[in-house]
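Structure (tokenized):
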């Protein structure tokens, strides 16, 4: 179950007076989920009662959420966090991370990929739009189960463009290995981590060359691992670069 205090906090954030969903959006969206899940909710139309039983839209959202199962609550809160109006809302982004981290076992729509890692990587790539664009394209293909070489091409190029931006050069991924070790140590990382990072990227590059550049026979079971590995690379690089 998702604790009542978390549901209340989610409602307070998502239907906040400033920057939150409007009353009309709360009612409309909840009504849509009620139809999808065949659930009766107390507030599915406007206007809200004027008798004081529902003082604000936050309360209406909370009471509506209470009528859904934990799995349904998870999906609704996750979907609402991803609403277009919250793209730049740090509090909502944090709410989604908490939801995925604490109650991810309720996510019936989840792919095997680590959603928290993906969301954090998107966040760190905000200042690198070219890299982010290709990363998003790879995620879209993964979400649509388009397990093809182009997906891995996107990931490779996304990482390559990130390194070019950070190191201010035009080198290919294979030729950035020396820069990586130096960069990590200059940013306070250990020599061992720098060496490990170099080896990981070296093998990552060899894998890409073998299975993407010269072969269409992509092994589907390995795509999730490569996606998460690339995400971890990029997330760590941007974080230490921002120190």
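Design, position by position:
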């Amino acid at each position: 179950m998702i604790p009542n205090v978390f549901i209340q906090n989610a409602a307070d954030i998502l239907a906040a007076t400033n920057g939150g969903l409007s009353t009309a959006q709360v009612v409309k969206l909840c009504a849509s989920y009620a139809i999808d899940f065949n659930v009766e909710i107390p507030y599915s139309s406007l206007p809200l009662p004027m008798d004081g039983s529902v003082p604000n839209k936050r309360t209406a959202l909370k009471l509506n959420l209470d009528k859904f199962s934990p799995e349904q609550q998870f999906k609704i809160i996750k979907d609402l966090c991803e609403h277009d109006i919250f793209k730049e809302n740090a509090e909502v982004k944090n709410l989604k991370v908490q939801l995925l981290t604490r109650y991810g076992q309720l996510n019936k729509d989840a792919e095997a990929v680590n959603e928290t890692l993906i969301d954090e990587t998107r966040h760190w790539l905000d200042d690198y739009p070219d890299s982010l664009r290709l990363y998003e394209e790879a995620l879209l293909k993964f979400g649509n189960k388009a397990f093809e070489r182009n997906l891995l091409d996107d990931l490779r190029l996304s990482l390559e463009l990130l390194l070019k931006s950070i190191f201010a050069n035009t080198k290919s991924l294979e030729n950035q290995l020396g820069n990586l070790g130096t960069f990590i140590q200059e940013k306070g990382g250990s020599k061992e981590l720098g060496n490990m990072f170099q080896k990981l990227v070296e093998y990552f590059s060899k894998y890409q060359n073998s299975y993407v550049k010269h072969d269409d026979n992509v092994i589907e079971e390995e795509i999730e691992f490569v996606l998460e590995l690339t995400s971890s690379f990029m997330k760590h690089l941007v974080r230490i670069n921002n120190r």
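Reviewer-requested clarification: The mean pLDDT is 86. Residues 4-110 form one domain.
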